[in-house]
Amino acid sequence: MKVLLIGNGAREHCIAEALTKSGRVELFAYGKAKNPGIFQLAREYQLGAVNDFKAILEFAKKVKPDFALIGPDDPIADGVADLLLELDVRSVAPLKTVARLESSKSFTRDLVEKYKIQGNPLYKIFYDTHGACHELNGVREFLRELKENFVVKADGLMGGKGVRVSGDHLANEEEGEAYANECIRKFGRVVIEEKFIGQEFSLMSFVDGKHVVDMPPVQDHKRAFAGDKGPNTGGMGSYSDANHSLPFLKQSDLDEAHEITERVAEALFKETGAMFRGIMYGGFIAVKKGVRLIEYNARFGDPEVMNVLPILKTDFVDVCEAILAGTLNKLKVEFEKKATVCKYVVPEGYPDNPRSGDKIEISGRRSSAKMYYSSVDQRADGLYLSSSRAVAFVGIENTLHEAEKVAEAACASVKGPIFHREDVGTSELIKKRVEMMRELRG
Ligand code: GLY
Fold first, then answer.
1. What CATH code would you report for 122-194?
2. How distant is the alpha carbon of residue 267 from its chain centre?
3. Of 242, 266, 330, 363, which sits 20 to 30 A from 212 (CA to CA)?
């Protein structure tokens, strides 16, 4: 079987590993840079920008894959799955109309509202009237109504940097309004909503249009530095517990999140006539009473995928085929009962002024951690940084404590101008999260 994989980060390295594990897949990779891990696993590796659809289609015409798997958000949002389908290549990724679940925050909020699905905050969408949204059309009043607890969301993809939160990135209503105007100028629309207090978690699900099969929930760490300090990043590390839950969650939280995803998948079909086939990645938050929806992504999370695919017991190719055939209900999808901790090693200065072009040394690694390459350049004399998250290490053990030690030892052994978050997955940090939820829920 031939599979076309689009994307070249650690997420796609992990996907490539899962696809090739069963030994029945010939992998054809397409990405903007040569990922050394994917390169090892691929039969052929085509270099090209992920938004160069002409090049992707030419490669697909030549390869004639049985199906495609698309890693990053941008090509999914721009409809690469639609174009591949015209060549009779189905994708484990949604068509453009349903990919709006990620690319348009207003679409998703309105969908959840229209179909009376639980989980939405108080929210309003403001449109461009005269090139800006100002007090006249109610932005300031709504920010005031939310009493300093507001979130301003750009209504389009901004590489994970489109969402700004009061008390975090926005100091007051003036800053909230200014950012809302910026969003309006860029996308013609902005979503302003109530900020939730609680603990965030990612629940990614395999979805075949009708059936929803959850992966273990994961908690990501967006901030660059220990103690959740510093600028937002693509994600510095993540963990998931051996019982396929998280220490601060109740089973009812997971049930509620699952129900939201099921109902949203159904609503998407009713609304658009297209089935969502791919990965629905719900960004949820456990609050005082139950669970709320922060946003959906229409792809695997990075780093979250590295917590789940390495412990998937079921053949991932079977899962992909069931997604495409609409038969996920007939497949037993199982994960090992293992705790996982993933930590990224990133260049000094990341994310604002990352170093690039420096050599790093990972050969001294003496641990059982799995390793996934991201933004690195493999040259004849070694591995070089290329200005974003470099390498991810994943500890997979019986307990979170052990998994964290394995991931940490691997990160600590890397030499070069790099850093990582030592606190991801530690008992100390997890205890704080558990206590926060205990206080909130009483
Ligand atoms: N973990 C963040 C993301 O994949 O968008």
1. 3.30.1490.20
2. 22
3. 242
Structure-block tokens of residue 106:
């207003």
pLDDT in tens, 299-321: 999 999 999 999 999 999 999 99
Angle between helices 10-20 and 316-325 (to 10 degrees): 90
Query: Which residues of the chain are in CATH 3.30.1490.20 domains?
Result: 122-194
Residue ranges, comma separated, of all CATH 3.30.470.20 domains in the chain are 199-431
Distance (angstroms) between ligand 1 centre and the Cα of 136 equals 35
The CATH superfamily label for domain 199-431 reads ATP-grasp fold, B domain (3.30.470.20)
Residues with CB under 6 A from ligand 1: 160, 220, 235, 297, 301-302, 304
Reading the block at residue 323, the tokens are 């997604």
Query: 330 near 337, Cβ under 8 Å?
Result: no
Instruction: Compute the Cα dihedral for 344, 349, 350, 354 and give only its sign.
Output: negative
User: How far apart are the CA of 135 and the centre of ligand 1, in A?
Assistant: 33
Ligand 1 center–CA 9 separation, angstroms: 12
Over the stretch 24-60, which tens digit does the pLDDT of each residue have? 999 999 999 999 999 999 999 999 999 999 999 999 9
